[in-house]
Amino acid sequence: MDLTQWLVAELDDTSARLDGQILSIVPSERQGERMPGGNSITWATYHLARHASLALQVTGFYPLEADPRLAEFDPAATVPGSGLQEVEQPWAAALDAAEVAAFAGSVITDVREYLATLDGAALDDRPDVAAALRAAGIDETSFGWLYRMWDAPLGFLVRWPLLGHITNHVGEMIGTRNQMGLSPFR
Q1: What is the DSSP string of 38-64?
Q2: Is residue 124 assigned to a domain?
């Protein structure tokens, strides 16, 4: 198995867990519920999609412009930086679970396409992360941590925001589902 096949297989497994173990089990009207100390499934889904979408911009796979798929959402959810925070924001209560799931599914499909065409030799390349984040409208004062974290070779962007970050939040959502008493394994 080559690297590209492995990356795609990992993403496919995570995407199948999101769809089959979370979104198809937790009723959409409950996906906005928060457990003590945690985020809702709707928030975590929106959050992982916003990070992945931004990472695709930084890699050059997406143009550095507003994502037209965000037109469906409340303006508070679409300003640059909205959804990048780890903690659920007050405006997230207005997110529609079905719209968020569709947005995330579309972004994950794009991540898959990017990973499937990735040249492993490019993983050591260093994109101009700061310039791309500025062009995407990400405020350096509010999101300085993102500028610092992502200032790395392309391999990091593949390993974290495009794969690991998605997997991490899917795991978080499985935990939320279980806390809701909706585990299919009980």
Answers
A1: S--HHHHHHHHHHHHHHHHHHHTSS-S
A2: yes
Q: What is the DSSP letter of 90?
A: G
Query: Residue 128: which domain range?
Result: 3-179
Question: Using an 8 Å Cβ cutoff, are 168 and 13 in contact?
Answer: no
Q: pLDDT digits over 28-82, tens only? A: 999 999 999 999 999 999 999 999 999 999 999 998 888 889 988 999 999 999 9
Q: Cβ neighbours of residue 144 under 8 Å, at least 6 residues apart?
A: none
Residue 40 domain-assigned?
A: yes
* CB 137 within 8 Å of CB 106: no
Q: CATH number of the domain at 64, please.
A: 1.20.120.450
144 part of a folded domain: yes
In the numeric block, which tokens belong to residue 86? 């780890």
Nearest to 125 by CA among 57, 30, 44, 60: 60
User: What is the C-alpha separation between 32 and 95, in angstroms, rounded?
Assistant: 8
- With 0.70 as the threshold, say if the pTM is over it: yes
At 138, give phi and psi (nearest 5°): -80, 115
**119 within domain boundaries:** yes
